[in-house]
Amino acid sequence: MKYVIINGSPRVGNTCEVIKQVKTNLNGGFEEIHLAKEDIPLCKGCYNCINFSEEKCPHHKKIKPILDKLRDCDGMIIGSPVYAMNVTAILKNFLDHAAYLYHRPEFFTKKALVVVTTAGAGHKKVASYIDETLRHWGVNKVYKLPMACGGKEELETKGIDKIAQEFSKNVESGKLHSPKFGDVMFFNVWKAMALSKDPIEADKQYWFETGLVNHDFAPEVNLNVLKKLFAKLMFFILKRVIK
Predict the structure, then answer these.
(1) Which of 166, 165, 112, 116 is nearest to 135 (CA)?
(2) Domain ranges of the chain
């Protein structure tokens, strides 16, 4: 198995220690990307990635190699301490650069583990934010490991090991899980937008070139009858609402 770690901590602290413990439970190779060392410029909010193409991002040469590593891995690990009740600035900056993946999801066969640490509070909220972002990217299954580490001399490794082993087992199984209803709905939101009378051209090109426009959800992932009906109903409604 091949794992890619996106470490959003600007220093070596609890997040790094938890990730280190996680790695002892995984079978395979690792590549760890420390965003603090990547020197990624601030996202300009220019919308080039969404409106035209991710290749039109002024920082494309910085972002593409990282996303390519995620495309090529079996499992991804995203880590961040809690800063001001959110992810760190460097992780948020990276996620902002990948905002087009909300419109053009592609990680439908990937599994992820989210590691969030705090000396106080906010860890569950921040883990849920990263989880939601990854599911918008299309990630098939997200495990969350939020940890409050403040005032502890040593990490409680038992809880870390349990989640890490579940994540590892799932990655190695190759099993793809049925998406949540919300994920099915958003898939059909972007599909309907690609078929609208005045679509974003980059979105339209992606949805047609990948063939996703012809499916209720990513074809690699099986939907049960109820979710297929839900997808078709959502698309029927959305196609008439989005103009």
Answers:
(1) 112
(2) 2-173, 181-241
Task: Enter the pTM of the model.
Answer: 0.95
Give the CATH architecture of domain 2-173: 3-Layer(aba) Sandwich (3.40)
Going by C-alpha positions, the residue among 171, 131, 9, 130 that lies closest to residue 81 is 9
Residue type at position 175? K
pLDDT 10s per residue in the chain (243 long)? 999 999 999 999 999 999 999 999 999 999 999 999 999 999 999 999 999 999 999 999 999 999 999 999 999 999 999 999 999 999 999 999 999 999 999 999 999 999 999 998 999 999 999 999 999 999 999 999 999 987 555 678 889 999 999 999 999 999 999 999 999 999 999 999 999 999 999 999 999 999 999 999 999 999 999 999 999 999 999 999 987
What are the residues whose beta carbons fall under 8 Å from the beta carbon of 230, sequence distance 6 or more?
Answer: 181, 184, 185
Give the CA-trace dihedral at 183, 189, 194, 196, to 10 degrees: 170
Buried b / exposed e along 94-121 (16+ C-beta atoms within 10 A): bbebbbbbebbbbbbebbbbbbbbbeee
